[in-house]
Design a protein that fits this description.
Helix content is 74%, strand content 0%. It is mainly alpha-helical.
């Protein structure tokens, strides 16, 4: 059940601009994650670099933010 404090935080968080809500959501999710794993961080670094190379080479298939948001909302039923 929601407490009074949680209800207040929830209401105030929803009034934040989208970018600030995203930053807050990221921080909250990160606080639930296990400690960083060096192997995982290295793997993500390599994956990010691989994707950046594809973008720079023009071989990546990109979608705009609105289309991405619609896809994600459809997946989570939102």
């Amino acid at each position: 059940m929601k407490t009074e404090i949680l209800n207040k935080l929830h209401s105030e968080a929803l009034m934040l601009p989208e970018a600030e809500r995203a930053e807050l959501a990221h921080a909250l999710v990160k606080s639930l994650d296990a400690p960083d794993d060096a192997d995982v961080l290295e793997a993500w670094d390599k994956e990010i670099l691989r994707r950046l190379v594809e973008i720079d080479a023009g071989t990546a298939k990109l979608i705009d933010r609105d289309k991405f948001r619609r896809r994600m909302q459809a997946r989570i039923g939102g």
